[in-house]
Design a protein that fits this description.
- By secondary structure, the chain is an alpha+beta fold.
- The protein folds into two domains: about 130 residues, Purple acid phosphatase-like, N-terminal (Immunoglobulin-like, Sandwich); about 350 residues, 4-Layer Sandwich (Purple Acid Phosphatase, chain A, domain 2), CATH 3.60.21.
- It has seven helices and 24 strands.
- Strand 3 and strand 4 form a beta hairpin.
- Helix 2 packs parallel to helix 4, helix 3 packs parallel to helix 5 and helix 6 runs parallel beside helix 7.
- The radius of gyration is 22 Å and the shape is globular.
- The protein starts with a helix and ends with a strand.
- Bound molecules: fe (iii) ion and calcium ion.
């Protein structure tokens, strides 16, 4: 499976080439770019460009209507959308074995620069995407507008929030998981999944294709480079490493291993990830750092693949086992990787892009969510103490999963509300999961959770504006996802000031 990445990997970026005019062609039935284009994981000189050839995206064999041959795909990168002068260009082979997905590492680009890109294959030209490189090492670059989101259940609603996010012209988009859901078609939904719960490689490929047929999602991919990490539903609900949480469908251990392998393979194929993130059988190397000059370090975590099983049988529990020092949400290797990265103090903002709720959150009975960091309290405490020991200036945890927006202060001791605030957590709501929402902004069990400062039950995303002196977070929501066309409005804004953990409402 490693070869899956390497074979589709080419480095571009030889100096500005001669102008190559690509004529437009009509969108015939054979048009292969029905799933759009994407880019991701930029550094100061390169970015990953992604597309997939699929004239019939929902064909049950997962091959998108392509025949069993490999196809040459040309690509171009330019500073203007006319592509009059090329900054980089080349060609790559889209392999049948990879479901005709391509991951081009377009290199030789200038730092902190906006680019346009496109592909050509089989006589057709793709839509144009916009991307951006990171600032040069040691420089802050331009202020960064970075939007983050999670949880886009296709049946629960339309992707209006993705559309509004694209319209913000962000420089970067962070996706924190539940990009797709594995469950079967459900009657009565706004729109339907195709087929049964997904298990095989073909199933996962078709599900990725279904999601990417959505024009609002395509617009968000085309608007900016993405940094992606999966959560559970890209494989199966609440799985913990090799332990399943669900009993349906019934699978043998070997079948579960094969399913995880298929899910990780399809995830890599369909995301703008670097070839270094290509899966190897039943595992996929996804935790990684993305450096944004001296402005921000993104530490992208994987809290599914290495975790201990949820304590006390998962769910909301009062559970002594959740305190066991032996329990880990990250695994030992990822924990030391994270702490070593935090020790570098390479940027003003250390942003932990990750999946599950970080701060302690108790319900009225004192129970907590065993799937979140509350089920792995020693693991959380080691990392919090780790950033204190290393003098991390501005730790900010970015979270998805819970389908509600929250803004939280991270406490040295959650049992003592007057203990120091040592960091900040911003939790995005869902793009569509759980439908329209109640609109409530009343914090659940607020008396038990004085460090949780904001809550909203609407769909949307968080728009952050990151500068060397502050990180501003605007919680953007849409009033409806069951009908098209809702506007995005800001329900609350906070600022985190450099060197001052915690939330300032603005
Ligand atoms: Fe979700
Ligand atoms: Ca989840």
């Amino acid at each position: 499976m490693r070869s899956l990445g390497r074979r589709t990997f080419i480095v571009g970026g030889l100096a500005a080439a001669t102008t190559v005019a690509w004529g437009q062609s009509a969108r015939a039935a054979s048009f292969p770019f029905r799933l759009g284009v994407a880019s991701g994981d930029p550094d100061a000189g390169s970015v990953v460009l992604w597309t997939r050839l699929a004239p019939s995206p929902l064909n049950a064999d997962g091959q998108g209507g392509m025949s069993n041959t490999d196809v040459t795909v040309e690509w171009q990168v330019a500073k203007t959308s006319t592509f009059a002068t090329l900054a980089a260009s080349g060609s790559v082979t889209a392999r049948y074995a990879d479901a005709h997905t391509v991951h081009v590492v377009a290199g030789g680009l200038a730092a902190d620069t906006d680019y346009f890109y496109r592909f050509r294959a089989q006589g057709h030209i793709s839509p144009v995407g916009r991307t951006r490189t990171a600032p040069a090492p040691g420089t802050a670059g331009r202020d960064l507008v970075m939007a983050f989101a999670s949880c886009a259940h296709y049946e629960s609603g339309y992707y209006t929030a993705y559309r509004r996010m694209a319209e913000e012209n962000p420089g970067l988009i962070l996706h924190l998981g539940d990009y797709l859901y594995e469950d079967a078609a459900t009657t009565g939904s706004v729109r339907l999944h195709v087929g049964s719960e997904i298990v095989s490689l073909a199933d996962y490929r078709v599900r990725h294709a279904l999601y990417k047929t959505d024009p609002d999602l395509q617009a968000a991919h085309a608007a900016a480079p993405w940094l992606v990490v999966p959560d559970d539903h890209e494989v199966e609900n609440n799985y913990a490493n090799m332990v399943r949480n669900d009993s349906s469908p019934v699978l043998t251990a070997a079948q579960w291993t094969a399913r995880r392998t298929a899910a990780y393979r399809a995830y890599y194929e369909n995301m703008p990830l670097r070839p270094s993130s290509a899966p190897s059988g039943n595992s996929i190397p996804l935790y990684r750092r993305v450096q944004w000059g001296s402005l921000a370090t993104f530490h992208l975590l994987d809290t599914r693949q290495f975790r201990d099983d949820q304590a006390c049988g998962d769910g909301w529990k009062v559970c002594a086992d959740a305190d066991l020092a032996s329990r880990s949400l990250t695994g030992a290797a990822q924990e030391s990787w994270l702490l070593n990265g935090l020790a570098q103090r390479g940027a003003t903002w250390d942003l932990l892009g990750q999946q599950v709720f970080w701060a302690r959150q108790l319900d009225g009975a004192g129970a907590a969510n065993m799937d979140a960091w509350d089920g792995y309290r020693a693991s959380r405490a080691r990392i919090q103490q780790g950033w204190l020991d290393r003098g991390v200036r501005n730790p900010v945890v970015l979270t998805g999963d819970v389908h509600r927006a929250w803004a939280n202060e991270i406490k040295a001791d959650y049992a003592n509300p007057s203990s120091a605030t040592i960091g900040t957590e911003l939790v995005c709501t869902s793009i569509s999961s759980d439908g329209n929402g109640s609109g409530s902004t009343s914090i659940p069990y607020a008396a038990n959770n004085p460090h949780l400062k904001f809550y909203s039950d609407r769909r949307g995303y968080v728009r952050t504006t990151i500068t060397p002196t502050q990180l501003r977070a605007d919680f953007r929501t849409v009033s409806s996802v069951t009908e098209h066309g809702a506007a995005a409005t800001t329900v609350r804004s906070f600022v985190i000031a450099d060197g001052q953990p915690g939330l300032i409402q603005v």
